[in-house]
Amino acid sequence: MKKFFALFALSVSLCSTATAQQDPKAGKILDQMSAKYQAMKAYKASFTQTLENDAAKVKENMSGDITVSGQKFRLKMSGQEVINDGKTMYTYMKAENEVNISDYESDEQEISPAQIYSLYKKGYKYSYVQEAKEGGEVVDIIELAPEDRSNPVFKVRMKVSKVDKSVRSWQMFKKNGNRYTVKINKFTPNVPVDATTFAFDKTKYKGVKVIDLR
Q1: Would you say 111 and 89 are in contact if contact means Cβ atoms under 8 Å apart?
Q2: Considering the domain boundaries, does residue 206 fall inside one?
Q3: Domain assignment of residue 95, yes or no
Q4: How far apart are CA 144 and CA 201, in angstroms?
Q5: Three-state SS for 210?
Q6: Angle 136-28-16 from CA coordinates, rounded to 5°
Q7: Cα dihedral 120→121→123→126 (10° resolution)
Q8: Separation of first and last alpha carbons in the chain
Q9: Mean pLDDT for each consecutive 10-residue tract of the chain (214 residues)?
């Protein structure tokens, strides 16, 4: 399951505060992007994630969708469903008809689906690369590099729409040769959510095996 969360985690384990002079042009774009998402009560996105490792000749595609509201989220991806209600995590595996329940820890790198929108604020240096086109849309490309050299991630490249400051795609480069590319296929802001959106209802999963790890 951890590789799925590479989508949003991007190594949240960094805890040092940025001290180097940051690129002001990149910083302005990132601030505008971050403010856009933070202003939403909730949002939903469908995405495609591609994992590539040229040396190992690996290329894997996965699709999914996620609904986010603050620290709460519901992620569906590759036969698994992960629900976080802000206090508890439920990881449901369809093939096994099994759900693992664990306490939510806000500082764990695997459980921060909104991290991409605030990643730059702590522990990363960022710089403006260039303007480009993606899918006929003009985007600004920004690169982030961790200050902590022990981080397994050495670079994150983000593409932000020049028109509405939304994140169109991003790439995460790891020292082990893995490269994750995430493309947002559809984004819906301010989707309606309620208490049931981020709750695991056992009655809807007939015969489910419950493993409580708390």
Answers
A1: yes
A2: no
A3: yes
A4: 39
A5: strand
A6: 115
A7: 40
A8: 18
A9: 48 35 89 91 92 95 90 89 91 96 66 64 90 92 90 91 92 93 92 94 94 93
**Length of the chain, please?**
214
pLDDT for 106 equals: 59
- Strand 124-134's sheet: what is its strand order? 124-134, 137-146, 153-161, 167-174, 179-189, 43-53, 58-69, 72-77, 80-84, 88-93, 98-103, 209-212
Tally of domains in the chain: 1
Residue 114: predicted pLDDT: 55
Q: What is the pLDDT at residue 180?
A: 92
**In-domain check, residue 184:** yes
Provide the token pair at 213.
């790890």
Please enumerate in sequence order all residues whose Cβ is within 8 A of that of 39, keeping only pairs 6 or more positions apart, or say none: none
Which amino acid is residue 103, in one-letter code?
A: D
Contacts of 57 (CB under 8 A, 6+ apart): none
pLDDT of residue 168: 92
The DSSP annotation for 167-191 comes to EEEEEEEETTS-EEEEEEEEEEES-
Whether residue 46 lies inside any domain: the answer is: yes
Q: What is the CATH number of the domain that holds 161?
A: 2.50.20.10
What is the span of the domain harbouring residue 33?
A: 2-11+19-195
DSSP string covering 102-117: EE--TT-GGG-TTGGG
